[in-house]
Write a structure and sequence with these properties.
alpha/beta; Alpha-Beta Plaits; six-stranded mixed β-sheet; binds adenosine-5'-triphosphate; ABC_transporter-like_CS; nucleotide-binding
Amino acid sequence: MDVITVDHLRKAYRHVMAVDDLSFVVKAGEIFGILGPNGAGKTTTVECVQGLRRADGGTIRVLGLDPATQAGQLRQRIGSQLQDSSLPGRLRVAEAIELFAAFARHPVDCDEILARWQLRDLRNQAFDSLSGGQRQRLFIALAFVNSPEVVFLDELTQGLDPQARRATWELIRQIRQDGTTVVLVTHFMDEAEQLCDRVAVVDRGRVVALDTPQRLVDGLGLPSVVRFSTSETDLGWLEKLDVVESMARHGDAIEIRGTGPVLALVASELVARNIVPLDLRVERPTVEDAFLALTGRDVRR
Ligand SMILES: Nc1ncnc2c1ncn2[C@@H]1O[C@H](COP(=O)(O)OP(=O)(O)OP(=O)(O)O)[C@@H](O)[C@H]1O
């Protein structure tokens, strides 16, 4: 079942075409990622989808509702992570959750939310006194207070330490298991790779690729890099293998770029010639490589 359909969405700010004929579908129960460089139009898109901004053209349906005319109904059924926003400084963590729950048609139990997002020990702490990571956890928790059917998370793990990131990913996976659909706007390639069932790569207001993280990478035929060390000097034959695109040597360190089953073929040829390096390894292309190939830009810039 399609939970979100965005069809030929357009949105301009004066002379800036922020979103230009953008289309995608989000299916029930998936974690759908929107990846793109700064200014690609991700936030504008997600704001239009949530009914926070009016589109100039195209159609959007979320849970069968039109966000432009049924935003009130929609807000009862979706959750949204606050971004760069702050709560009153003296508001305590538990009070913030109770406040948001008071507006929800189907609020979840506040203690359960505090426990799930590891906020129990902070329940009486004022918002002002929270660290960046703790605030982030609170913003995520608040997105789930109204038992949303679809939740929008923007830069989910910004400011979290590596352990907290992994714990957050695990919780989001559990939330998917509970049947909630998740839309994730992210700059983090590893997050998209680890968490998302499908990813839309957005650039200059358009979707330039949409697939599972694995198929995005595989579909581009990007090279893998095989590395190993050897003192053997006669390796020119390696470059003649069909799968090998190039070879570089720095002392004993060998680096081979190639596509397809490059590791298996290089390994078997080396062994056949009695060269058995102990450190043979392969670096497969990642979503980051795919992103660079698709947009020509580093996502962090
Ligand atoms: N309120 C606004 N007024 C004018 N221009 C805007 C406004 N909001 C966004 N823009 C412009 O529209 C384009 C898309 O912005 P948007 O915030 O949707 O991109 P984004 O992909 O979310 O970027 P980022 O990753 O930096 O948050 C950018 O060129 C931006 O400068």
